[in-house]
Amino acid sequence: MKKRDYFFRGLGGVLSVLFLAGCGTTLSPIEQRIQKEYAFFAALPEDEQERLRGGRVEIGDSMDAAWIVYGKPTKSYERLTEASVNMVWSYSTTELHPVDQFETTYYPVTGRRGVTRWSSDLQLQRSYLHDRSENLRIEFREGKVIAIDLINP
Hints:
By secondary structure, the chain is an alpha+beta fold. It has five helices and four strands.
């Protein structure tokens, strides 16, 4: 074997080990957000920490707890009530639906005698419809969860 073959085998082995090591250290989104807000999370009682790790938010939890579980909202807005102004976080998903349709395409064709004429063909065009649907809404008053709306399609 040539030195070059040993080099490429060794390089392939090192890259394989690095790839597999990277796959094993991927944290869940909740764990990543816990690391970002570790001071807040560490101050919580152990049962609340486990509940948040399990992805559950309850009435009375703080905005930080909701952020740890669900992340940044798709949009946020204020809701004015008779008694207060509440913050609402809305979480949506977007689905793409392909739409196929045939369209007529025109193009010039030059014949053997140098005469140019227009010809047409049908061409398949694919476009996508964006379907955004809200699936979760959390309402806060004074930084605490007061309502959770789970929206089933």
